[in-house]
């Protein structure tokens, strides 16, 4: 690592702490949905987004700010984090693990490799990215926001892999927060349904209805930026961001 440690927040004359600048923020799944919305929000807030995804983002990013990686491969995910951070100055101030997949089906209607890939991307990919990012975040006193789901706290049928992975992200994040208290900031984001392409490839029975009220990913991205920009020592530990009529919460 080649970065120079600087304080993540400043103190005003009356002793209050100002929000920190976003700095460099790594975003998995940054080419679509919540990830893409957060890329735009980070840029608008003056931060520098780095993107890991299978697809190149449409956002205008400098050379070297995007890397292709399959997050179902934990070792590849770890190496991609190190490579992209080192290629962009060696400093990392924030992370959002927005990459996620699903294939709704009964347990006996989904093949083993597909079931396992959902868990690998959503849970193992999240853990691998966090593991590789930790040394950088500890140096900068940075923050990580993990993305679970309302289906990480409420189970439904035909979603055993997705619920298993997102329940896992909840437990993983709470444990990470306890483990790294006072060293980095850790926020668990529990979003409800959003207007994204996440539902596009599903069978009709698993798609939101035409009258479904979903959140805009831009609104959830604003909550991510809020969590990432808190002053050192002030923790947004968990955020539930959902439509006021979200059916999967509480």
From TrEMBL:
PROSITE patterns: ADH_SHORT
GO molecular function: oxidoreductase activity, acting on the CH-OH group of donors, NAD or NADP as acceptor
Listed SUPFAM superfamilies: NAD(P)-binding Rossmann-fold domains (SSF51735)
Gene3D superfamilies: NAD(P)-binding Rossmann-like Domain (3.40.50.720)
CDD domains the UniProt entry points to: SDR_c (cd05233)
Family, similarity comment: Belongs to the short-chain dehydrogenases/reductases (SDR) family.
Family matches, as PANTHER family: SHORT-CHAIN DEHYDROGENASES/REDUCTASES FAMILY MEMBER
Name of protein: NADP-dependent 3-hydroxy acid dehydrogenase YdfG
Organism of this sequence: Microlunatus flavus
Lineage of the organism: Bacteria, Bacillati, Actinomycetota, Actinomycetes, Propionibacteriales
């Amino acid at each position: 690592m080649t970065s120079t440690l600087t304080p993540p927040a400043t103190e005003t004359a009356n002793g209050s702490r100002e929000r920190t600048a976003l700095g460099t923020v790594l975003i998995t799944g940054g080419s679509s949905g919540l990830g893409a919305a957060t890329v735009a929000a980070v840029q608008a807030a003056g931060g520098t987004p780095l993107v890991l995804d299978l697809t190149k983002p449409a956002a205008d990013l400098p050379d070297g700010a995007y890397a292709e990686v399959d997050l179902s491969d934990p070792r590849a995910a770890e190496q991609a984090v190190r490579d992209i951070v080192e290629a962009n100055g060696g400093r990392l101030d924030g992370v959002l693990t927005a990459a996620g997949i699903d294939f709704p089906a009964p347990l006996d209607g989904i093949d083993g490799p597909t079931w396992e890939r959902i868990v690998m991307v959503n849970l193992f990919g999240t853990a691998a990215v966090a593991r590789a990012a930790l040394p950088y975040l500890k140096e900068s006193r940075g923050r990580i926001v993990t993305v679970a789901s309302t289906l990480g706290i409420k189970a439904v049928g035909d979603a055993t892999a997705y619920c298993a992975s997102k329940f896992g992200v909840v437990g993983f994040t709470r444990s990470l927060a306890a483990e790294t208290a006072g060293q980095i900031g850790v926020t668990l984001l529990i979003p409800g349904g959003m207007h994204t392409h996440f539902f596009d490839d599903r069978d009709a029975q698993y798609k939101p209805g035409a009258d479904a009220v979903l959140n805009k990913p831009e609104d959830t991205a604003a909550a991510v930026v809020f969590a990432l920009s808190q002053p050192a020592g002030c923790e947004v530990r968990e955020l539930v961001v959902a439509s006021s009529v979200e059916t999967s919460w509480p």
